[in-house]
Design a protein that fits this description.
Structural class: alpha/beta
Helix content: 25-40%
Distance between the termini: 42 Å
Order of helices and strands: EHEEHEHEHEHHHHHEEH
Length: 294
């Protein structure tokens, strides 16, 4: 593959990033700035935390429907539309890559887009003109298997692709709405520090990094941050595909919780990496909470 970019994003709560919710302001700014800084892809492969199947499954419809997989939000959130086309050719290539690695896989010609796809993409690419497909998690939630899925995607033959892991580095629903105590902040921050170190520290060998991701439950307060790991596993697929330390980490406050985004930028031979302009640097630093708004 040439011109491959990989991003893991914390996608926020349901459609709240689209509702001008103050608790999602940093996330909205980050997603918009990320799209500005990446070369516009020819297609998007997105792994959503909101889709699990018995085997890895890929959307293969040319015109995917909308799935409103959330409850209790304003009526207008059930009328949202993101009419980007599917990409059946890419779906078949993903299927072939997983089959070659002897990973059970199937195509789904009926499945539509869940909010793990259309909420962030409405912010990143509002024109809805980039063909996109989704890849499910496997419902055994095995960390090693999801790393293997990512590794299998290394053989994918598709240029100028953006792979997005759409999850959340903190996903304890009860704690989003609990008191923001010093003890709770400590637990959240220590896990985030472990995760950032695991995926950005270039002193770690890839064997060490892989072992940390396999054994993520041994991280500080892992089960406090992830009572169930479906929102973390899209990150495993991203790392399995990249197989190296991330190029970029962003710390984003969402609903009073620290959360992470990671980006692996294209390293294809012969490509000249576009440099950020000064205004893009300021926007990124503001989105990451590194500078205050004046």
């Amino acid at each position: 593959m040439h011109n491959l970019n990989i991003a893991f994003i914390s996608h926020g709560g349901g459609p709240m990033p689209l509702l001008n919710d103050p608790g999602h302001a940093q996330l909205v700014a980050y997603l918009k700035s990320l799209a500005d800084r990446l070369e516009k892809p020819s297609a998007i492969l997105l792994i959503s935390a909101h889709w699990e199947e018995a085997v890895a499954t890929i959307t293969a419809s040319m015109k995917p429907k909308m799935i409103y997989d959330y409850v209790g939000f304003p009526p207008e959130t059930y009328q949202l539309q993101y009419p980007c086309p599917g990409e059946p050719t890419l779906a078949v290539k993903v299927q072939q890559a997983l089959k070659q690695a002897k990973i059970p896989v199937k195509l789904d010609h009926q499945r539509g887009y869940d909010h793990g796809l259309y909420v962030p993409l409405m912010l990143m690419y509002p024109e809805a003109d980039i063909p996109s497909i989704q890849l499910s998690l496997v419902n055994n939630l095995d960390a090693n298997q999801h790393l293997a899925i990512g590794k299998a995607l290394q053989s994918l033959d598709y240029d100028n692709l953006l792979v997005i892991g759409s999850g959340f580095s903190f996903h304890n629903m009860r704690e989003f709405f609990s008191a923001n105590t010093q003890d709770n902040r400590k637990k959240n921050h220590e896990f985030e520090h472990w995760l950032r170190t695991s995926l950005t520290d270039k002193k770690l060998s890839e064997t060490e990094r892989h072992e940390r991701m396999v054994n993520w439950v041994k991280a500080p307060y892992a089960r406090y941050c992830h009572p169930r790991e479906e929102h973390l596993l899209p990150l495993h697929i991203c790392y399995g595909l990249a197989d190296r330390a991330s190029d970029e980490h962003a710390n984003i406050t969402i609903l009073n919780k620290q959360s992470s985004a990671f980006v692996w930028r294209n390293q294809s031979p012969g490509r000249i990496e576009r440099k950020e302009t000064p205004i893009e640097i300021i926007k990124r630093r503001y989105a990451n909470g590194e500078i205050d708004k004046e």
